[in-house]
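User: Sequence in, structure out. Go.
Assistant: Echoing your sequence, followed by the structure tokens.
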Amino acid sequence: MAKIIVSGCLMGCDCRYKGDNCKCDELLALAKNHTLIPVCPEQLGGLSTPRDPAEIVGDKVISNHGKDVTYEYTKGAQMALYIARTNKADAVVFKANSPSCGKGIIYDGTFTGNKTQGNGIAAEMFLNSGYKVFNENEMQDLIEFLDK
């Protein structure tokens, strides 16, 4: 039985910036044989729900109103990593494209819906700490990883 850190929004928690979720039934089905541990790095960092959308601009996370929320995103990523380490997590499934959780592709910082290569703050921190990080579009890869 693996322990998997999961973006709370993928588990149905209404914690996304606009107060909704992105429930992923395929991911939730893994709870039959594995332990899913929800986290929301943005909430863990002290941001409210709902909150202004934010994107990575250079080396900062900036809201669509120009507020620098880098501190909150970094603090939340550190808290999520602490939860993963404390629970001896085996893998991570984060929300795709997010400035916090996105892996490989994130929004480009222009608030136009365009995407670019890169990782969100939490995803980057987890990857740098040696965790295997997936997103909800990589469920088959996750299942293969868990079957090893």
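User: And one key feature?
Assistant: The mean pLDDT is 97.
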